[in-house]
Amino acid sequence: MDKKEIRQRMRMMRTAMREMGIDYYLVPTADFHNSEYVSGYFKAREFLSGFTGSNGTLVISQEEAGLWTDGRYFVQAVQELADTDIRLYRMQEEGVPDIITYLQQNMWAGQSLGFDGRVVSADFGKKLEEALEEKRIRFLYERDVVDTIWRDRPAFPCSRAEVVPADYCGESVQEKLGSVRGKMRQEKVSSLFVSRLDDLMWLFNLRGSDIKCNPVLLSYGFVTQKDAYLFLQARSLQRETIDSMREAGVQIMDYHAVSAFLWGYFQTGNRGTVWYDRRNISYSMYRIFRTYGNVREAVNPTERLKAVKTEKELDFIRRVYLKDSVAVTKFIYWLKNMVMSEKVGQEKEDATADTAESANDYGVLTEYSAARYLDGLRKAIPEFLEVSFPTISAYKENAAMMHYEADQNDCSRIEADGMLLVDSGGQYLGGTTDVTRTVVLGDISEEMKKHFTAVATGMLRLADARFLYGCTGRNLDILARGPLWEMDMDYKCGTGHGVGYMLNVHEGPHSIRWKYTEGAPEAVLEAGMIVTDEPGVYLEGKYGIRTENVLEVEMGVKNSDGQFLHFRHLTWVPVDLDGILPECMPEKERRALNVYHREVFERVSPYLTEEEKAWLAEATREI
User: Fold this and answer.
1) Coil, helix or strand for 306?
2) How far apart are CA 332 and CA 550, in angstroms?
3) Residue 422 burial by CB count (10 A; 0-12/13-18/19+): exposed, middle or buried?
4) What is each CA distance from 568 to 311, 565, 572, in whole angstroms?
5) Between helices 311-340 and 367-379, what is the axis angle to 10°?
6) Between 353 and 155, whose confidence is greater?
7) Contact at 8 Å (CB) between 502 and 207?
8) pLDDT digits over 395-441, tens only?
9) Closest listed residue to residue 35, CA positions, set 168, 230, 216
10) 95: pLDDT strictly greater than 90
11) According to the 3-state scheme, what is the secondary structure of 197-249?
């Protein structure tokens, strides 16, 4: 992005702020539902700063501007913020103030803090209130200042509402509403307000495409013991949607009228307790509930119910993961052959074709063309809907950026040297996938192999865990991270996240991460949850390595010591033995890798050509 244009936008922003009497303005990465990923309409922070990462918050004053982001994006942010006069604040690094501390240190008494209250979470807004109360900071949260200077802003997202086929639903809408109402009775609340989009899609068995790669619709839900209301944009409705909701006893309301509905509901004598999750509603919505007063703030019951898959859902998930694993295995075979082929380097007009019919469609092998080839293999799977996130195909030093995305006009050529990290996944009728493999393409150093082996060891060690019911991911993270900590190394992200069922690739409430954060909820791991296992090494300017499998939590032995659980692999893709130093891998993990590879061959080989099968037999040999 043109850095001169970024500086001009910041000047325009400061002018607008002065005219509105705003001293500091905060621009997060969020939509009205605090979604992790957002549509183009909501990418105000990217528009102003040029930083394209999925997480970051911009704070602007007349004197300076700062961008806060996490460790996944440090390398990327340095590059994208260069020459913009925007300072990078590396979140959770020693000596780096967080946003609230920064505002406490820099704002004067009586100044004003502006933000669009619809895109700031209630949780964060309340923390701002408490932290800035002594300085009597005025909150101006009803103006979207960015909109006044964004002349060509993308349209407000509105896609078609699709009903999930009955055969693929783990439960009916009525059954899910019954479970939710049961939780409401336990909590002694009379109504529940839901703003989190994947929770709403799960509850009402709907899908959409208002956010790229996330099959969701912008929506709200309000549930009482008798009634259920779903707020959707009128343009998204189809007759099938209307009929389906009517049969389930759900009343469809206008998406843009939700605030008016709530004001009206609360003013007509409905004085029971309303339940909402402060993390997942906007600050503007929170102000409505605060005026009402009789509230229960807690994690949505939908979030926990959604995370534990039904046996029907798990059956579809297992089938989809096998098909997805076959595609990724075929891709690795193709990639290694392309690198060694004499055709690599020959220019062809269709070098970036968007199909995967043959290796000859790709003359010059690049990060971008490799990603498109893998995407094409997934598209050939009958149940395929779309990718679950843009495919990360990162060669050599680019792989040190955790969320790097190659562009057709700005990508590295792949040669018979180093490593390619590919993190990818698909949305299917029957599941959502996420898998990462780092593929060795030529000579790599002893140091690279040691790091590669440590990452694989960590992945296998966590996958082989046995643990008592009651554990959260924080109890288990050390298993994956330990081999790297023993080398005085770490990776600046969690080890694992939940994965949705035909929904968001990142799903809570469970996760696997080591760090304790005060006030952050932790979820006990339950049988039926699925979670990623993805340790890594990221060395700026050198290389990146990640090995990621998705695991299913299963019941284990129950005895006098309690109920044990364990994991089951859902991903069946070989780990590149060209990166493994057997002498550096403990015996237990070597056995685990050999067992895993035997099962990879047994499950995947029936779907391969004879040439691919012969390659896989060698790729999964015992070490």
Assistant:
1) helix
2) 18
3) buried
4) 14, 10, 11
5) 140
6) 155
7) yes
8) 999 999 988 889 898 899 999 999 999 999 999 999 999 999 999 99
9) 216
10) yes
11) HHHHHHHHCEECCCECCECCCCCEEEEECCCEEEEECHHHCCHHHHHHHHHCC
